[in-house]
Amino acid sequence: MSFAIGQKSDKNQMATFQKIGKRWRARIRRKGFPARGRMFDTKAQAQEWASRQETGMRALKFQDVRIIADKTLGSAIDRYREEQTPTKPLGKNKTRCYQC
User: What percent of the chain stands above pLDDT 70?
Assistant: First the structure.
């Protein structure tokens, strides 16, 4: 038997706890973030994990991987060269490394 128990702390987030067999599933859905879920042995563990995840989302510590998925090391290096070299010229070693 499975059933869901939800606790709503504000209108944009919701943790749902569902008993599946002997284990508990915690799911978190919040607008602007991908859905997250995980299985636990006890409901208390599920609630603790959900609380930590929601706190991280509220504090904006949680990064949506879709936001940074298109970022590469090459683009970061190019941006550094564009922004830093006009004010801080590169030395011989860095110039040689960038030419490789």
Answer: 77
| In the predicted structure, residue 83 carries a pLDDT above the cut 50 | yes
Average pLDDT, the chain: 79
Q: How far apart are CA 77 and CA 60, in angstroms?
A: 26
| 63/42 Cα distance (integer angstroms) | 27
CA distances for 6 relative to 27, 84, 85, 98, angstroms = 10, 50, 53, 53
Residues 15/35, Cβ–Cβ less than 8 Å: no
Q: Under a CB-based contact definition with an 8 Å cutoff, are residues 23 and 39 in contact?
A: yes
pLDDT of residue 73: 84
What digits encode the pLDDT tens for the residues 39-71? 999 999 999 999 999 888 888 766 666 666 677
Angle at 63 (CA atoms; ends 73, 4), nearest 5 degrees: 145
- Continuous segment of H or E residues that includes residue 27: strand 23-30
